User: Fold Carboxypeptidase D isoform X3 from Drosophila hydei.
Amino acid sequence: MILRNTIAGQLVLLLLIYGRHTLLSSAKTVANEQMSLALPEPRAYLPDAQNLDFVYHDHEELTRFLRATSARYPNLTALYSIGKSIQGRDLWVMVVSSSPYEHMVGKPDVKYVGNIHGNEPVGREMLLHLIQYFVSSYNTDQYVKWLLDNTRIHILPTMNPDGYAVSKEGTCDGGQGRYNARGFDLNRNFPDYFKQNNKRGQPETDAVKDWISKIQFVLSGSLHGGALVASYPYDNTPNSRICRSSALCAMFQTYSAAPSLTPDDDVFKHLSLVYARNHAKMSRGVACKSATPAFENGITNGAAWYPLTGGMQDFNYVWYGCMEITLEISCCKFPPAYELKKYWEDNQLSLIKFLAEAHRGVQGFVFDPAGMPIERASIKIKGRDVGFQTTKYGEFWRILLPGYYKAEVFAEGYAPREVEFVIVEQHPTLLNVTLQASKYIVGSIGNAAARKPKKERKQRHLLNDELPMPNE
Ligand SMILES: [Zn+2]
Assistant:
């Protein structure tokens, strides 16, 4: 009941659903702290060169910076490793939040992943600067304070430290350092929803899969280089030819690949636009080179650009309902260090405002009739056939644009419920759902388990298949 008290203190209860009735209610204003949109913009900021210069940091320097920062800001940061690369380098994650060591009940966890391709390290450096910006601005920037008070931000600056170690500064194209130490492309190494992926799971990928399975991330960005665009799921498609080289991909593009759209396409487009429009030039959609595509408004569907199997963003979305997009932030994969300051200026606002999008849409709890949270209740927004589940505290989040929605809520041993709700622009809708015990005994027709969404069963099945891919 401690939980309930906390919740009561934090939330405005919008809807309690009993019996078969559904309520339609306009959303009410929540506490000021939830109202991200009313806050002033984050201020322009350049990190203190004494703490973090605009140069590339090798793994030792990166480790030293993260350790020093966590020692200096123990109330705002926590440093953990999700595993090691093949060559034994730690995959460090820095949490930045006013509650770095503990999940804040009712508040979302979000993440950034950098450097999945070892030779695309601008994102890796941007994430170090983002960490530095957050910790040093918490007391002076209202927006940053609000964000860190209401969000746990997990930052993995490098997912492929071994690849980075053999990459070369100033190399704008090519594959040297792209792969892990065994030659696997980590962004082709995840289980795939559309095609079987027979590539052997790599330690870096396994570490990320394990991480995602333990923390329910609401929103995520994966940082790449080699283009300037925000790309959103799906990356794969049921009926694509897969191009195995950039030359082939470029050729396919001239035949205009078909987009492969998720049921959350409106949300993914919006999230991508938030990044592109807050970026200094991404939304202009100018092509990096004459031979590469120009992207309208600086965004694209992944498969429409070029399809790929085993990508990380499709996995995040299909398996866990985490809204991950791919951020290509530099035309040159590994530009010279003197350009890093410019990249930071171009990306800092995008990096911050994208994370605040975790506070858009619907969030709430699923309770049993005694007011206890129900873990692993399945929720499906009607018309969006990707299920997601409550946490052990019964929490859920779903990023949605303004409109009327219906959610179906299922949990084993409880009667399923349908709930209607409204999303407005200004603040998240808080939705608490109480499920009544099922009248049927487990296993009988009509019990909640038997009605679990089809896709969820498929997802679980797919988790056991490991899988493979091409090359760009
Ligand atoms: Zn990449």
Summary: The chain has two domains: 2-30+360-460, 40-359. The pocket of zinc ion is lined by residues 117, 120, 224, 226 (CB under 6 Å). The chain has a mean pLDDT of 85.
